[in-house]
């Protein structure tokens, strides 16, 4: 059975952020190993890293994990700091496929 891609659109308004989901939200449930392509990610702060780390922990609980491909800039620097100090949400994330 083909999997319908999950598409996410975000619209920012003055008092709220609207997130529109299309496709199958359970698509991620079918795979324990997730690779996130961060090549076109314009910005990611500590809250974003915490979200990615939570997704990694959920996948790891199912025997898989989450890794980041093409992480660069601020995201890569924040992950390196987390790894150096051995704590923080990004310390468990693996980066693959660098530039």
Written account of the structure:
This protein has 99 residues and is α/β, with parallel strands linked by helices. It is built from 2 helices and 5 strands. It has a single domain, classed as 2-Layer Sandwich (Transcription Regulator spoIIAA). The strands form 2 sheets. A 3-stranded parallel β-sheet has the order 3-4-5, with helices on one face. Helix 2 links the parallel strand 4 and strand 5. The radius of gyration is 15 Å and the shape is globular. The mean pLDDT is 80.
Give the CA-based shape.
Answer: globular
What CATH calls the topology is Transcription Regulator spoIIAA
Provide a count of the helices.
Answer: 2
Beta-strand residue fraction: 25-35%
Share in helix: 25-40%
The CATH architecture designation is 2-Layer Sandwich
Keywords:
single chain; 99 residues; alpha/beta; Transcription Regulator spoIIAA; three-stranded parallel beta sheet; two-stranded antiparallel sheet; 2 helices; 29% helix; globular
Compact summary:
This protein has 99 residues and is of the alpha/beta class. It is built from two helices and five strands, in the order E-E-E-H-E-H-E.
């Amino acid at each position: 059975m083909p999997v319908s891609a999950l598409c996410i659109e975000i619209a920012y308004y003055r008092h709220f952020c609207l997130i529109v989901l299309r496709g199958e939200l359970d698509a991620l449930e079918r795979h324990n190993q997730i690779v996130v392509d961060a090549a076109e990610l314009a910005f990611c702060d500590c809250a974003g890293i915490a979200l990615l780390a939570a997704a990694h922990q959920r996948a790891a609980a199912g025997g898989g994990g989450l890794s980041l491909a093409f992480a660069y800039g601020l995201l890569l620097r924040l992950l390196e700091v987390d790894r150096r100090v051995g704590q923080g949400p990004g310390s468990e994330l693996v980066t693959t496929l660098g530039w």
